[in-house]
Design a protein that fits this description.
By secondary structure, the protein is α+β, with helices and mostly antiparallel strands. It has eleven helices and 15 strands. The chain has two domains: 165 residues, Alpha-D-Glucose-1,6-Bisphosphate, Chain A, domain 4, CATH 3.30.530.50; 128 residues, TATA-Binding Protein.
Length: 390
C-alpha cells in the first residue's frame, strides 16, 4: 500500500471516529438544558482583583487572641473547622425526602423555610433560569419563561453553525416553574414545584402567523426537577433518583386503577354560587388546591391555612402567553414585546365538610361575588380548579 493510500485510510478512520464520538455525545446528552431569554453571562473576576491566598504560617495574631503559639494555633484550627462546616448551609442527606399523593410530588426538608428559600433560588439560577417573580414572605418563587435547548435537533448543521446563530433555532415550546414553600410541623419545610408550558402553534393555513398557547403541565418534569433539587440540598445523585423511583413504584397499590376512575372532585351550586367539592379531607385538599392554583396561573399573594384561605390574583393564561415571548427573530433578540397584563384579586376559601372539602371563590374581603362580571370570572376560576382537582 502506498503512502498516499495509508494517509487516506487513516484520515477516513479519524473521520469515522469523530462521527461516532459526536453521535455518542448526542445520545448521552441531558434531556434538560434550559436557557432563559436575556440570560446574563456569569460574572468573571479579573485576575488582578483576586486576592492571593496567603500562607497561614505568617499570619499575625490579633490582640484579642492568645499570645502563645499553642493558643494561636488552636484558634486557627477552630476557624478552619468553622469555615469548612457545610452543615450550616446544606442539610444532611437523611433530612430530605420525597413524598407523593397521586400524581403530586413534593419534598420534605428538615429545615425551616427561611433556610431553604435561598438555596432554592440558587438552584433555579444554576439551572439556567431567570427569576421572574418572588415573594419571600409567602415562600413563593417563580422563574421566567425558558426554552429547553436539549430538545433542539442536534444535526450536523445545528452542531456547526448553531453555536453562532443559536437564536435561529427554536423548539416552539416554553416552560415556567413555580416553587412554593410551606412550613410544616417540627420546623420542616414542604417544597412544591409546579410546571406551566406554552406551545407555538400556527393560526392560518399558510403557516405565516403563530401564537403561544398553553399546554398541559408535565408531572414527570416536575419530579425530575425535584430530584435535582434534592441533589442541591445535599442528597447524593444516585440516592435522589432511587427515592424518585421508590415513590413512583409505591404510588400504585392494588386496586388503584378502580379508585382512579372515580372523580375526586365535583362541581356543584351552593348559596355562594358554584363551588368545587373535593372528595378528600382538608389537609390533602389544601395541598391539592395550592398546586392547582400554581398550575392555573394564579399569583398567591397570601395564604392562611388556619383560616383555609388563599388570596390570589388571576391572570388569564392566554394573556400571559402573549407576554412570554414572540416567535419573530427581532422580538427574541431585542425583546420589544412588553404587553401589559391585568389581574383581578379574589379569595379562595377551602372549608372542611365532614370527610370532604368545599372550595369556593369569594371577593377579596371574603364576601360573595357581587357583580355579574365577577360571578362570570368566578365561574371560570371554579372551572379551572375543577379541571385540576378532579
Amino acid at each position: 500500500m502506498s503512502a498516499a493510500c495509508r494517509l487516506l485510510t487513516i484520515g477516513l478512520a479519524a473521520l469515522l471516529a469523530a462521527g461516532c464520538s459526536a453521535i455518542d455525545s448526542i445520545n448521552n446528552a441531558s434531556r434538560i438544558d434550559y436557557k432563559s431569554t436575556g440570560k446574563l453571562p456569569p460574572l468573571e473576576i479579573p485576575p488582578e482583583l483576586v486576592s492571593p491566598r496567603g500562607n497561614e504560617r505568617f499570619a499575625i495574631p490579633e490582640r484579642t487572641q492568645a499570645q502563645t503559639l499553642s493558643g494561636f494555633q488552636t484558634a486557627r484550627a477552630a476557624d478552619r473547622v468553622t469555615s469548612s462546616d457545610t452543615s450550616r448551609v446544606l442539610p444532611a442527606a437523611e433530612g430530605v425526602r420525597m413524598a407523593r399523593n397521586g400524581s403530586q410530588r413534593w419534598l420534605v426538608v428538615e429545615m425551616p423555610p427561611e433556610r431553604v428559600y435561598p438555596l432554592v433560588r440558587e438552584f433555579w439560577q444554576e439551572s439556567g433560569f431567570l427569576i421572574g417573580a418572588e415573594q419571600p414572605s409567602a415562600g413563593i418563587l417563580e422563574t421566567d419563561w425558558a426554552e429547553n435547548r436539549a430538545k433542539v435537533p442536534q444535526d450536523i448543521i445545528r452542531s456547526t453553525i448553531g453555536r453562532v446563530f443559536d437564536n435561529l433555532y427554536s423548539t416552539g415550546e416554553r416552560d415556567k416553574f413555580r416553587t412554593r414553600l410551606e412550613s410544616s410541623e417540627a420546623g420542616r419545610t414542604e417544597v412544591y414545584i409546579t410546571h406551566r408550558g406554552l406551545a407555538e402553534i400556527y393560526t392560518d393555513r399558510d403557516r405565516s402567523r403563530t401564537v403561544w398557547s398553553p399546554r398541559p403541565a408535565d408531572p414527570e418534569l416536575e419530579a425530575e426537577f425535584l430530584a435535582k433539587l434534592m441533589v442541591k440540598l445535599g442528597v447524593d445523585q444516585q440516592r435522589a433518583r432511587a427515592q424518585v423511583a421508590s415513590v413512583a413504584a409505591s404510588a400504585a397499590p392494588a386496586g388503584a386503577a378502580t379508585a382512579a376512575e372515580a372523580p375526586r372532585a365535583r362541581r356543584m351550586a351552593s348559596g355562594e354560587g358554584e363551588i368545587v367539592v373535593v372528595a378528600e379531607p382538608f389537609d390533602r385538599a389544601w395541598r391539592r388546591v395550592g398546586l392547582a392554583l400554581d398550575r392555573g396561573g394564579f399569583t398567591v399573594e397570601d395564604r392562611d391555612r388556619s383560616q383555609g384561605v388563599y388570596d390570589v390574583r388571576y391572570i388569564d393564561p392566554e394573556v400571559d402567553a402573549k407576554s412570554s415571548d414572540k416567535p419573530g427573530l427581532f422580538a427574541r433578540v431585542f425583546k420589544t414585546d412588553k404587553r401589559p397584563t391585568s389581574a383581578q384579586s379574589y379569595r379562595i376559601r377551602v372549608r372542611a365538610q365532614g370527610e370532604e372539602t368545599a372550595v369556593s371563590v369569594l371577593q377579596r374581603d371574603g364576601q360573595p361575588l357581587r357583580s355579574d362580571a365577577d360571578r362570570q370570572t368566578g365561574g371560570k376560576i371554579v372551572g379551572l380548579l375543577h379541571e385540576q382537582l378532579r
